[in-house]
Amino acid sequence: MTRVGLVGAGGVAQRHARVLSSLPDVQVAAVTDVVPDAAAALAAPLGARVVPDVAALLGEPVDAVYVCVPPFAHGPAEHAVIEAGLPLFVEKPISLDIGAAQEISDAIDERGLLTAVGHHWRYLAVVEQARTLLAGREVRLVTGAWLDKVPPVGWWPLREKSGGPIVEQAAHVLDLARHLAGEVTSVTAAGNGTPPAGDIDGATAAVLRFANGAVGTLAATCVLGWKERAGLEIYADGLAVRVSETGLTVRDADGERTVDSDPETARVAVDRAFIAAVRGEEQDIRVPYAEALRTHTLALAVAASASDGETRDVRP
Ligand SMILES: NC(=O)c1ccc[n+]([C@@H]2O[C@H](COP(=O)([O-])OP(=O)(O)OC[C@H]3O[C@@H](n4cnc5c(N)ncnc54)[C@H](O)[C@@H]3O)[C@@H](O)[C@H]2O)c1
Question: Which of 32, 34, 287 to mutate to test the pocket of ligand 1 (most atoms within 8 A of CB)?
């Protein structure tokens, strides 16, 4: 039996708890949240123990810990889990600033710990298919978008709590851009400065330069009452690829093909891969902490550039 501890019991923790409980021989054993009622609500149907804090969680017999707190709350939990030498799953975004994330990354490296971050899009079969199609091709243009509403959590529209829509949400698209088109070397962005709520930009537009010569754009807005779309388009000579959580569309000289995708499969796969690695059964962790740090660096650079209009050099 693999026993998992959860730090944070909100929306995404509930999702991980549901998936983990559906995997064979995995048990959500203990839960902590600064809102004890939230921990209790998650724990009760699973028969998990509710504990007052991370120290108490680490006093339980757990084999791995998920940190599912909002962006502003990262740091103390990760350091405690690292100190305990346990495998660590962290939800994105991994922090609000680069310094805190770099410290966590260094501490992980020092201890040689197993980690994973919730960039589950990398487990989509359609993303693998897009990568195969693009292999050996010269990518020319990348256009990413996250066009959505403000999610219904109080901290989200506050810049100092969430980092804003690029860091909090569009990071999934930036991670996919890196995965499919390679590293970004510089970004220049603009924000429209009019928040739909709180103090975040209602819209952001960015221009990206890639190491391989490709150019790209990222567009984000949170002023809609619904999720319009979130995904990435990639263009190479004679090839157009459109990929998202819900499907892949490919067009080339032979015409257009579409493959549907169920987002749930990747949400299950990311947890299954982490647990398999914890058990030493299989190594298929696609975004360990250090890799997420690279995407986070890029997202922070886009957000910073949107604030002051200055180009940011993000060469690795
Ligand atoms: N990978 C994905 O697809 C995905 C999906 C949803 C959310 N997320 C990410 O997960 C994170 C959390 O999102 P959410 O929707 O669950 O938010 P949420 O507000 O629903 O839940 C966060 C929970 O963390 C608790 N919390 C806050 N500070 C804490 C601390 N120091 N210690 C313990 N608990 C603490 C809160 O009380 C709350 O219950 C966000 O960064 C979000 O971007 C990722």
Answer: 34
